[in-house]
Amino acid sequence: MSTLDQVGERDGWRCWLCDEPVDPDVSVNADRGPSIDTGSAPKGKKQSAVTERLAHRACNTGKGKVAPVVAWSRDLFVVDPAPIVATVDRLGRKGGREVMARCPSRADGDAAAAWLVDRLSRLAPGLAVRADVEPGGGQFLVVLRTV
Fold first, then answer.
1. 65-74, 85-94, 104-113, 117-126: which range is least confident on average?
2. How far apart are CA 88 and CA 129, in angstroms?
3. Which sequence spans correspond to the domains of the chain?
4. Is the pLDDT of residue 9 over 70?
5. What is the three-state SS of 50-76?
């Protein structure tokens, strides 16, 4: 088990759930204070296989025992966005390609693709991905691929 400082340094003092900065000097009892999310072990894996991640205390407590949800940025114009955590888990296990969202314009698709790759670089740093924007059905698909 790692210390809070070790996990915080490794994660760049950013909450893995909301992607906002975590202040290491705030009390661990404050809502915006740092905490370690240990999650639970994937099926068939030992508890030692769990990844410790930095989270705000409120973000960590708020997710409780339910599957975590990483929200898409409100600044993006996306339709039918895929759940980020479930997709990252699936790509990490199987690799391949996943359609992540639809966008009305190429510019919206490019913005969503850039945001998604940046967000995943912190959410799942060991997963090498690229996002492409492909035309389809009068809209643009944001497609995530493992590399």
1. 65-74
2. 10
3. 4-63, 84-146
4. yes
5. CCCEEEEHHHHHHHCCCCCCCCCCCCC
